[in-house]
């Protein structure tokens, strides 16, 4: 349920005054969880103000005063020993600001050699076939700009890291929309420049960030004998791929293992960097966080960074948003 702005503003003031959710619920004659969930949804609908600077930048190419990496993840694989931070499913504009804050803190402190974004970075909300909240303020251009701003923050936190970005099923909504439009606007879609410009790498100016884009369905080696894929809802990754690797899509931490005569295989799944209270689902069984890997001579050490209510514990240090 979406509550009136005047009520949510009062709740915001109550939180600033130090009231607990239980006290606020009693004050406004609502259940504690109702008021907490309603407030989170209200903040999500109105968080565009957090990104005013990004949105005002428009779509001009990035001009960064940074020395972007001249190597790719393929070069790191040859090196064999490196660190890697992997995150997924931000679903901008449904991203979680607290999770982004902690992600940036860890990146800035540890400066991983490789960053991997497993996809569904942009939600492509405006292009969805599902019902939409008429109260949402963002346009598709706003979402693109917010996605660009998110990528920019990640790049500025680790300018020397390689940055690999996968296309997820939500980004694929753009292609499906264009294919439908091509049926009625076939003449326009004969223009190769139009087709090139209306792609995520161009909309997000990923070249300007020194990032590598991997289109839908890509299965890419990102470390020695370790592969990345956006993921899907079903199927056994060992049967599908027969290798060790990592995927996103399901919004939760998971580790599967399989031993063969020749080797020990592992498949990881990544949680979401998006909100845990989307308008289209009620209390989904999702988690916020990301993975930090250390690769050394074919071995890997995986560390979970779990984010709960804007806090995370990693290597003995507490990070707060």
What does the overall shape look like?
A: globular
Number of strands: 13
| Structural class by secondary-structure content | alpha/beta
Enumerate the spans where pLDDT stays under 50 for 5 or more consecutive residues. 47-58
List the helices and strands in order. HHHHHEHEHEHHHEEEHEEEEEEE
Distance between the termini: 27 Å
CATH level-3 fold name of the largest domain: Purple Acid Phosphatase, chain A, domain 2
- The H-level CATH homologous superfamily of the largest domain, spelled out, is Metallo-dependent phosphatases
Largest sheet: 8 strands, mixed
Please, what is the oligomeric state?
A: single chain
Overall number of structural domains: 2
| Helicity level | 25-40%
CATH architecture of the largest domain: 4-Layer Sandwich
Q: Averaging pLDDT over every residue, what do you get?
A: 86
The percentage of residues in β strands lies in 15-25%
Number of DSSP helical runs = 11
Strand order of the largest sheet: 4-3-2-1-10-11-12-13
CATH class of the largest domain: Alpha Beta
* Rg result: 21 Å
Task: Give your account of this protein's structure.
- It is a single chain.
- By secondary structure, the chain is an alpha/beta fold.
- The chain folds into 2 domains: 1-45; 57-320, Metallo-dependent phosphatases (Purple Acid Phosphatase, chain A, domain 2).
- The chain is 33% helix and 24% strand.
- It contains 11 helices and 13 strands.
- The chain has an 8-stranded mixed beta sheet with strand order 4-3-2-1-10-11-12-13. A 5-stranded mixed beta sheet has the order 5-6-7-9-8.
- β8 and β9 (264-271) form a beta hairpin.
- α6 packs parallel to α7 (140-157).
